[in-house]
Amino acid sequence: MEKILFLAHTDANGLLPKSAFETLNAALEIQKGLAGSTLSVGLVGGNVQAAADSIASCGAAKMFGVSGADFGVSRYATDVKALEAIGAASGATILVAPATSRFSRALPGAAFRLKAAIDTHVSGIQFTDGVLQIQRWYYRQRMMATLTRAARPWILAVDSGVFQPWQGAKGSAKVEAITVIVSDKEKRTKVTGVEAPSADAQTIRPDAVVLLVAGAGWTKKQADGQTHAKEAEKHILDFLKYAKASLGSSKSLVDQGSEGEAVLSFMSHLNQVGQTGSTPRHPKGLSTCCHGEEPHVVGWRFINERRAINTDANCGWAQGKADVLYVADAFAVMAKVNELLAKG
Amino acid sequence: MTTAFNIVVCGSLVPDPLQTLEPIQGPMGPALKNEMMLPSVLDPWAGHSLFEAANLAKQNPGSKVTLISLGPKAKLQQLMMIIAQKVPFELVCLDGSASGFMDSREVAVALAGAIEKIPGLDKTKLLVFGGCSSASRDAGTTMQMIAEQLGISDVFLSADELKVQPDGSFRILERIEGGQYQVSTCAGAPAVIGWATGNLPEPPNNPQVGMTNMRTIMPALQKAQPAALKTGAIKFASVELPKQQRQTRIVKDTPVEEIAKEIVTWIKG
Asked: ipTM > 0.85?
């Protein structure tokens, strides 16, 4: 009989992030698929009561919590210790956690201490002959594996956007507090804050419906023999504003910044999708001025509907990867698109 | 105050991203078709960490950069021909599989063991760098497991910046959700840092650096210890290429207005 533990941490508001609710659904699906298994919850945060109350009706037999000021911040040493303590107290055999930046950093360390196996970027689960199998991608989204492990405990870090968020009634949850002593050595790292772009300059929106992928073509010489980086910036930023889209970029466009070429001022490595960038999940993606393989193969893996604008009808990386390829000047098309979006 | 660091970079080879990869079933589990024949590159995020290490070493005289690579010896030799001219480093080579299908715990045990054996390693000055994840397994778990084995409790993942402060402490920017950075300070070495892209461009080739590096690289390759990596922890039911090939509709010779209207309708739909 498997003992399943759903792990989550609170966000800056003391609540659970969306990805935690998605992962709770994954944990419940695992519990349902493994006959006789039980579900418990483990929470980490400054104060976990509100988070526990928000999932009080999820059906967990027990809720464990590690809380206090030391656990209100995302820090490896304290997070690992908290996860280790919850894992040990629960006696869980399968631990399911959201792959947030905080847990992605801490879970492998906790796995090592708990002598657990760990798989990250879990993008699906299934049951074959009563055995839990997970799906995850290898070689940067180029091949997908279905696998299982006999070892227990087994920690699964689930990617966001894979499962629907759990929805259920709030309530009054009873949390079993676990005391974790933190030494000075474990507080050598101090979290001093978050650097976030101003609301106007925010170009990465994980919850956006549309991802705009900008390629290096935006900063290349156009038909008049000149570059038009400022104009490109305006088209892209206008689109992000009107479509409330998120911005991704090809590696080549981002690299131009550090190589001293014409650049888009708001573009950084954080926008990069592909081999050394992110693989975001959005319902729709629009690629512009982009002829690279990586944005179309790797960076777009989890984009459902894909369209591309570029001037090459034979673009091998768009054909077969995009649903629609518009052979046109992206400057002209995006100017018109923005005009139409602005009119509402 | 400048501090001399012992910077150990963990990084190995991955197939060139432009290569078409095909999984096959090998005797030890999944593998890549013609794996030994595929052109390789330094794992991109590990590469960024190597460049950051070299930059940090340059700013802190007396620092030393050691690259630890786990991979097939013959392929590592080819890789070194490519990267030896980039930045100064010493090589420690572990002869074993660089396959993404290996369990990260096995890899971490081998790498941590090799770090422990570096002659004259001062753990109080130790910074272990690597990529935030590999382009092969893409798990993002190896660096933390190395930290655990080395007894290092300050770990940062997806770092883009490390600045040594006048008092010897570090200021580190880590990528978090929503295009934001978490800003942390750390009292100093030892620490383990899994880098994202960092902020540095790829250094140009420098033949002089290459010649200096090769003096230690070739003996290191000859002395490469076999890494006894166990397989079998993971039971793969299947490894497949995604089958979906989209039927791309090409729209050309169409007025800009029409294309724009179609895109707007699609976005709003």
From this structure: yes
